[in-house]
Amino acid sequence: MPERSQNDRTMIEISHVTRSYGAFKALDDASLVIREGEFFSLLGPSGCGKTTLLRMIAGFDNPTSGTIAVDGQPMAGIPANRRPTNMVFQSYAIFPHLNVEQNVAYGLRRLRLGAAEEKRRVEEALAQVSLTGLGKRGAHELSGGQRQRVALARALVMRPKVLLLDEPLSALDKKLREQMQVELRRLQQAVGITFILVTHDQYEALAMSDRIAVMFGGRIAQVASPKEIYQRPVNRQVADFLGGMNFVKAEIVEENGSSLVVDTLGFGRVKTEKPKAFVRNGGGATLGIRPERLRVLWDDASSKFEVAGRVIERHYFGEITHLIVEIPGLEKPLSVTETNDFGADDIPVGAPIRLAYDPDALVALAD
Amino acid sequence: MTAAAEGSQPLSLGRRQRTSLLQSEAAQGFALISPTFIYALVLLVVPILVVVAHSFWTQNYLTIDRTFTLENYRIAVTEPIYLDLLRRSLWISLLVSFFTVVLAYPIAFYISFHGGRHKGLWLFLITIPFWTSYLLRVMSWKVILGYNGVLNSGLMGLGIISEPSTALLYNTSAVVITLTHAWAAFAILPIFVSLEKIDRSLIEAATDLGDGPLRRFLRITLPLSVPGIVSAILIVMIPTVGDFVTPKLVGGKDGVMIANAIQAQFGKGANWPLGAALSVTTMLVVTAMAASTVLIIRSAARMAR
């Protein structure tokens, strides 16, 4: 996939936005800058405030305090129907009494473009989502995937400055979902519109986004590229939400501006990069290592960095095997994923095992 | 022992067959509707057949001549008085259904979209007038619209009129007002149900695509509530054509409707066959009017895109 040239122009600026319902804060002092042409994801478990934030950008909800600006224009007081944003709803919200063409043309009708221009733009939008020729289909004659495409075309045809997607793929089955992830990303690159995706699916966010904001309990925990979020999560919560993570207790030996030296029982003395949000809480710290960053050492193979233990559980997942390995000195067993090309699926439970790791894979986590 | 075993064998078989018969879904369905079905057959279909049969016969003083004739229908569709009454009845029922729906829609809309947690309470409040008898409600309109009635006294008290108006009661509009009030709840409920069924995200989607409140009402809410409007119209229109208590009590001489003439033929007029022919004619005309109203509304909704 060719990388689209991205500029640094701010498209959306969210500053200190809070949304309270009585004593409950659905969103708590959220600040965020989203750039023009960016594919940005709001990721978090249900109830984390991601949908609330999206709906406030769309204008269906208003901040209790704080401001939202789209393309430099403050959105306070501007109703949803006059905002330069369009939305793909989770339920798709296809108008049941209209056919595909009429659904897509819905927002254009008001602009009075003339029949020919309107038709041209509808055709163009249908082609973008690969629905050419289905214009006369009734809303009830569409499959789930087709409904999703109609919803997308209906929003794109308006040429919004920002396209908002509220869990657009959650209603599709796994195969179609994966196919749509690729298509959606490709479409975004082609049209160059800023996309904001709300999702609770970490893989979806990782696969599609330029940047991700991870949210918990109404607060934004981390904003970074997928790779950085995955490899350098700022805290345990983020690390735990995105994929599996082994947590290892550590003692801080030395702390300076950018690095941290810690002692662990299983992994010995390790020097790691200090996360920006790291706050020292006594002498203890937590180190994290992803299950796939631990490698099984076969036979006589050895590594400069290795730990030894015993397999206590084995789970087979087709292309990978998930091993639970007990390491003397570690309070919790390590979880390891290994591809099945060398026979990890045949390692007997109870067998002694040695695991290699890269010290760079160990990250310090704020609690 | 043996005898008992032999005796019990066929019994248990028979029972098993009976249960399997009752377990078939069709049989259960028929069993469920049969009391209502028999009731409807005896009290609805049979009387209608009797009426239809009578309409082809002739009254011969006290006896009925059962030779087939279309004479009653000729009278029913050519005699000016019956045509006039029929036309007036249809007009009144059309007006009543129109006003009922126009007045019921905002109420149903309010309850559905702004009722919040109190939807049930609102619906309950709407049914309260129906706790009194229909006759009493009609009589109370007499009290409101009458010569010394509430409305006249009120208007006089405000100095708007100097003497009581007689234009309020005993005419067509009195019938329309009374019937509209009487049928309001029956129109509110189907409209409310159809509004409740509208997915609110559709309205948000219309907003998102640039529509203000009026546009999204006309383009989304109204077309999607057409089924409710249609059933409200049918529920109101069909029975009001045949209403005879209301015109009798508040209609005066201008408010007489076809049902009053039919009643007269079965009563004082003592011409059952003519009464029957008038009934059948009315039924057919009402069916035609209801069907065309439904078609017109549906095509209007289709135009609204």
Automatic annotation (TrEMBL), chain B:
One of its GO terms (cellular component) is plasma membrane. Coiled coil: none annotated. It is found in: Cell membrane. It holds the Pfam family BPD_transp_1. Gene3D superfamilies: MetI-like. It is a multi-pass membrane protein. The chain crosses the membrane at residues 37-57, 90-113, 119-136, 143-162, 174-195, 216-238, 276-297. InterPro entries: MetI-like (IPR000515), MetI-like_sf (IPR035906). Residues 86-295 form the ABC transmembrane type-1 domain. Keywords: Cell membrane, Membrane, Transmembrane, Transmembrane helix, Transport. GO terms for biological process: transmembrane transport. PROSITE patterns: ABC_TM1. This is Spermidine/putrescine ABC transporter. Belongs to the binding-protein-dependent transport system permease family. CysTW subfamily.
